[in-house]
Automatic annotation (TrEMBL), chains A, B:
Entries under CDD domains matching the protein: HTH_LacI
Any one GO molecular-function label of the UniProt entry: DNA-binding transcription factor activity
Alphabetical list of SMART domains matching this protein: HTH_LACI (SM00354)
Keywords annotated in UniProt: DNA-binding, Transcription, Transcription regulation
PANTHER family per the UniProt record, alphabetical: HTH-TYPE TRANSCRIPTIONAL REGULATOR GALS, LACI-RELATED TRANSCRIPTIONAL REPRESSOR
Domain HTH lacI-type: 9-68
Record's protein name: LacI family DNA-binding transcriptional regulator
Organism of this sequence: Cryobacterium flavum
Length: 345, 345
DNA sequence: GTCTGCTACCCAATCGTTTGGGTAGCGAGG
DNA sequence: CCTCGCTACCCAAACGATTGGGTAGCAGAC
């Protein structure tokens, strides 16, 4: 811990103090293995490093990037950080970026197209080296523009064909749930499917449907309800589903834990006991799931790793490497909300 | 929406194109009301602005701050963004900062002292203009160091005597809960008090105790359990409290919604029906509270505003204004979890 | 004795803005 | 005619780091 304010001492100061030229000091402090490579005499290098440490020298990043044209800044855009899922992914991002000596800006777009555009412009006007986009919509028009403008970016959480992304294998996640519910004897099921513009919602739903049908089950279109990713959305959707007495399901798959929690509320209000009368399974296994009064079954997705992978991918892109999208495998955590056999009616 | 990458056109380019000097262009584009004040002829100013807009000129912030010694960057440090409370406050920060043309870095410190120090250093090495500290510990040693180093900063969410902060009036919040529980007939109560190093925990607890005692109630030390701010912590604390058969309370105040949710889980496991056998009240009124199977009573704190106020305060400090801490008033939202009369035993 | 190759440096331009200090040109007042 | 005060600009020096291109000095080879 230095006791002075960073920025008070510059490269030039160091150089003057030691009777060297700033460029020499720069090379010593910056070059990694240049010590022995004609950059400077080992003794000099040591002197420089010692002084730098002693006076708490820290290079001015704006000055450096003015010259190098790289800011070591990454922009992250998410729908909202108050969505626990994105917040956790961001923790992974922060960690990985920090390790690579990058800093991150993060902004909320509320999944609003105009806001997305605005935030992107703000990020670019800050001259970020690249973007991590966590709010991609399936009609990826903004992404095409970014490509044209040659802005380096990768997607996170939501995937769009043609762009590299770090996501959970949502299709598999949906399939795991279908298998689980089928195994427990459920034949009439519904899905609270999330927002249609999000690949997470679409893939989890289609993964679920495909597997369920492959097992011999039937899911009519009417059993799929698209709704916002939050508790309110889940509650309303579940209400609709459960009030349809023609076809009341014995199990509901909500593609998001918060929607699942809302669904539990709706079930409760209708006098259904979740975990006995009705099975509910969520997605993401947020920290709440296991702690609810009736513990919620959920698909655990490696959120931290998704964030970290997104950074790795973006750094790859910046480095002009060939990068491949990564798709991390989820696992199913069965808990009280669905841990029972459906007895034939 | 420009179709080129920001940074491709500079002040010098604009000047050359118009046959002007870069400094003239700078003054026109930067000066607010300088148009008529001898800075430039109105016609010229218009030409400059038109061209700037047309070619999508956006000034290079690193170059500007190299010269001006101000980065228009704010650093925000929070325990964890995956804590909904801080995430929402951050949304307020982002909004207010954006309005003032500042950008924000946010980092998680996990309430770990070493990490707090590290993150502060990272922020300072990025040359932020100031810091918003959302993870202050009551033994504010780091803060003293920052003061000595003349780093501009303000506190958010947690207050420490002697430093300016934007917080909820936690003492009042605690008092509101005490009054409510007392009014409903509860005489034996317990508090899940949170972490001792956080002013939020301490103030909410002491506000509660003071009011309860002022009303004539008794709260022994043993009725106060300090625990982490999450579901696990709340669950464990509630378990301890409820298993103490010598003094089983009819109501529990958890200073945080997540802890309250954990407590609900514990109550449930012990066969107690929250909202009939046991009253539980949380704090912050996070979006989940109202949607839980048994809706949770909670003290609503103006989280967004706290974030916004923190930015205002910090900008004030940067502007060398005299600033006063702000303390926003909370309100109590009574819901099913505590909306019943305690009948005398 | 010259040339080559190496070490250990130095020099100066450059990145894009900002800003204190000019100055040319013009009309008006004395 | 000189001076004053405008207006509408221009000039150049910063800010701090980076980097391509030197160069002085020395050792060894031919």
């Amino acid at each position: 811990m230095t006791d002075i304010r960073p920025g008070s001492v510059t490269l030039k100061d160091l150089a003057a103090e030691l009777g060297l030229h700033p460029s020499t000091v720069s090379r010593i402090l910056h070059g990694e293995s240049d010590t022995a490579r004609g950059a400077a005499a080992p003794a000099t290098a040591q002197r420089v490093r010692d002084l730098a440490k002693k006076v708490g020298y820290s290079p001015d990043p704006q000055a450096a990037s003015l010259r190098t044209r790289r800011t070591h800044l990454l922009g992250v855009i998410v729908p909202r950080l108050s969505d626990l899922v994105l917040a956790v992914m961001y923790e992974g991002i922060e960690e990985a970026a920090d390790d690579a000596n990058y800093s991150t800006f993060v902004m909320n777009s509320r999944d609003d197209t105009a806001m997305q555009r605005r935030k992107v412009e703000v990020m670019l006007s800050r001259r970020v080296d690249g973007l991590i986009i966590g709010d991609a919509h399936l009609d990826g028009n903004i992404l095409d523009e970014l490509s044209v403008r040659q802005v380096p970016f990768v997607l996170m959480n939501r995937a769009i064909a043609g762009f590299t992304s770090a996501t959970c294998d949502d299709t598999l996640g949906g399939a795991l749930v279908a298998q689980h519910l089928w195994d427990r004897g459920h034949r009439v099921v519904s899905v609270i499917a999330g927002e249609k513009y999000a690949s997470t919602a679409v893939d989890r739903t289609s993964g679920f449907i495909s597997r369920f049908r492959a097992l011999g089950g039937a899911i009519p279109e009417s059993a799929i309800v698209w709704a916002p990713f939050d508790t309110m959305g889940g509650r309303a959707a579940a209400d609709t589903i459960l009030r349809n007495t023609n076809r009341r399901p014995s199990a509901i798959f909500a593609v998001n834990d918060f929607a699942a929690i809302g669904a539990m509320g709706a079930a409760n209000s209708l006098g259904l006991l979740v975990g006995r009368d009705l099975a509910i399974v969520g997605f993401n296994d947020t920290s709440l799931a296991a702690q609810l009064p009736i513990a919620l079954s959920s698909v655990r997705s490696p959120m931290l790793d998704i964030g970290r992978e997104a950074v790795k991918l973006l750094l790859g892109v910046l480095n002009a490497d060939r990068v491949e999208s990564v798709r991390l495998a989820p696992t199913l955590c069965v808990r009280a909300s669905s841990d029972f056999e459906r007895t034939a009616t």
